[in-house]
Amino acid sequence: MAQGDGTGLIAAVDIGGTFTDSVLVHTDGRVAYGKALSSPDDDFQSGFFGSLSSAATLAGHDPDDVFKNLTRLVSHGSTVATNIVVEGKGATVGLITTKGHEDTLLMMRGRGRVVGEPPENILRVTSTSKPAPLVPRERIRGVTERVDSTGAVIVDLDEAEVEAAVRDLAGKGCDAFAVCFLWSTQNPEHEERAAAIVERVAPDAFVSVSCKLSSAVGEYERTVAAAVNAFVGPRTSGYLRKLEDRLGELGFTEGLMLMQCHGGMVPLEDGTDRPIMTIGSGPVGGMVGTQRLAAELDIPNVIATDMGGTSFDVGIIQDLEPEIAAETVIDKYTYRIPAVEVLSIGAGGGSIAWVEPHSETLRVGPHSASSNPGPACYGLGGEAPTVTDADLVLGYLDPEAVFGTSGERQIRPDRSLAEAAIRKVAEPLGLSVIDAARGIVEIIDAKMGNLLENVVVGRGFDPRDFTIFSFGGSGPVHAAGYARELGISEVLVPGEVASVWSAFGIALSDVRYTNEGDVQLISPIDTGALQKAYAELEEQLRRQVGDREAQFRRYARMRYEWQRNELEVSVPDGELTSEVLEAVTADFEQRYEQRYGQAALLPDARFEIVNVRSEALVPTGVEVTTHGVEAETHDARKPDRKVAFARGEAPEDTPVYDGTALAAGQTIDGPAVIDLPTTGIPIPPDATVTRTERGDFHLTFKR
Asked: Do 349 and 225 meet the contact criterion of CB atoms below 8 Å apart?
């Protein structure tokens, strides 16, 4: 990679469960990337700066000076906030709510035990349970107040009760407070007054107010959002303050940006009071990059698949627009905030293989070796066999590759350590190390194929209408396997940056603010009322945007009257007429039929709009110029490697190619392996891979 002077650099960082990925984007379109093991023990600081140091070195910059030349740095705290919830190591939260509704959070709408569980577990009462309460009963206080569904105050807020509750909870060690009252979506005055009391009585505490997080109706979901936000708030804020201070010491003065789960970013000062919006923001960065690439290649329907070290994340882009989540679930708690839909399972390169003692069968995941100790082949103390160990033993990964850094040390895979780990599951099953490794790969590919089937077919889509985009450190290695499971014949691996694609997508993101509100509009829809609803949302957004130029986008969540199934459709900007609404409802009907089938259509039923959403997009102007790949044929061939593509067959000498040296238009027939920085593309015997002019890798199965 050619060296640059460092001016006009943009950096983006994606903190994952195993690796922290970063990219440096130059104004001329050149991209450098770095990987370092994530470091939860030091609040992710060494992983954050280690990955940027690696990227700076690759780009030919002095790692100590590169921060002075950054024009923007985007980070996200997805793993930070998510880990806090999953590990239960958050703040001591006190919840203040409407008197008589203290058990809302604990009741979980009566379905907390089964949320997120597969169908076969619903009746397994003894083996499934509700999660530990986010806020235990002894730290929940009800106060006198009541607002009705129209926003009218029925009972005034008893401020003395609020103050007494805050003093009591602060005395019990609460360092964060969540406030959620009934119908605050219609009138937030009581919540705002209660928050002011908390700030006065407990000035050092973190305060989370439901009306600032969600405008959607649903007392339980808003309470969860406020409680989760409070639970992760103090630690996330501490992490961001420490990060900002260190960046300032290194000469970065432009202001940190935070990636959000809705697909855009916001300045640090706009995001610190809503850390819940960073949950899931890393995979969403991959969706942003995929959306940009799909538009450039004119591929309207894409299944985005991100396989990292800890999880396998899937999102759908239809007609170049990502699907939006109706709700988000974390540790069985459900909340509603605007978010791009990304579904995940515990299936990554670090997923641990084990033998189930009762059935004596091989299992993989969901537990992961994560970054500490990591897969056995990393040589960092891990001994359990993982998917990455299996990939290395089977010849799918370059044994000379540098996977990333851990402090000052480069991580190079050790095949002997991988074989020793896999032998622990091979011997009890009477298998060879190679067959056990193939079994691990087949199981993890099947698990990912099942998730893809649930996401794609379960939503009424035909997989044959979609192209898979595969990225992440382990995605390209397994792309052919899980694509075959779903019956999809084409896979696109986005060039050399595939392993850090989510960080790359974060770098391309625009500043975005979003606002939503629940409505109840039934056909024939009152266009004036709908126009007014959007006007109110956009007035708030314009205050957030300030003097910056912004593009406004509108969306509506619709359903048939009295039905539960809802779908979001886009609504044109500008004046809303009956003709515009006819086009919107026609779009809804088409999507509804595609999702649920023609038999589910209700031709005589009225339409209902239940939620409206507006976005303000402030373009950053970041465009990565694609220089393309030379059409000349290079000597990309590397020494052959022993590779195994099927159980029961001995590994055979297989052609191996340096993916970065392949020429545009060059096609590689399987069986073969393409080595890429920190990842690889095994090409099975029934597939071919062609490098495109843009530099991507297009895998197709032979017919």
From this structure: no
For the segment 79-130, what is each residue's pLDDT rounded down to a tens digit? Answer: 778 778 877 889 999 999 999 999 999 999 988 888 877 677 778 888 788 8
Q: Write the CA distances from 529 to 255, 399, 502, 543, 553, integer angstroms.
A: 40, 63, 39, 22, 18
3 state DSSP class of 424: helix
**Strand 321-322 relative to strand 312-318: parallel, antiparallel, unpaired?**
antiparallel
Q: Can you list the alpha helix ranges (DSSP code H) found in 18-171?
A: 45-58, 78-87, 104-107, 159-171
For residue 225, is pLDDT > 90? yes
Would you state the structure tokens that stand for residue 294, as one six-digit string?
A: 């799909």
State the DSSP H helix or E strand holding residue 126, giving kind and residue range, or none if neither. Answer: none
Reference 389, options 429, 354, 437, 424; nearest CA is 437
H or E element at residue 91: none
What is the SS3 assignment for 530? helix
Dihedral, CA atoms, 647, 649, 651, 657, nearest 10 degrees? -70
Q: Do residues 642 and 395 lie in contact, with contact meaning Cβ atoms separated by under 8 Å?
A: yes
Residue 59: burial class (beta carbons within 10 Å; 0-12, 13-18, 19+): buried
Task: Kindly state the tokens that stand for 282.
Answer: 């890393």
What the block records as the tokens of 378 is 């990393």
Question: Is 307 in contact with 475 (CB distance < 8 Å)?
Answer: yes
Asked if pLDDT for residue 4 goes beyond 50, the answer is no
Q: Other CB atoms closer than 10 Å to residue 625's CB: what's the count?
A: 10
User: What's the rounded mean pLDDT across residues 437-456?
Assistant: 91
Asked if residue 6 lies in contact with residue 64, where contact means CB atoms within 8 angstroms, the answer is no
Q: What are phi and psi of 453, to 5 degrees?
A: -65, -40
Q: How do 697-701 and 343-345 pair as beta strands? A: unpaired
What is the 3-state secondary structure of 313-361? EEEEEECCEECECCCEEECCEEECCCCECCEEECCCCCEEEEEECCCCE
Return the axis-axis angle of helices 189-201 and 159-171, rounded to nearest 10°: 40
* Tokens standing for residue 568: 């979001």
Residue 322, CA distances (Å) to 92, 199, 314, 588, 603 in order: 36, 38, 11, 16, 27
Residue 249 CA to residue 155 CA, distance in Å, equals 52
Task: Please report, as a single letter, which amino acid is at residue 45.
Answer: Q
**In sequence order, what are the residues at sequence separation of 6 or more whose Cβ sits closer than 8 angstroms to the Cβ of residue 293?**
469, 494, 696
Whether 61 and 6 have beta carbons less than 8 Å apart is answered as: yes
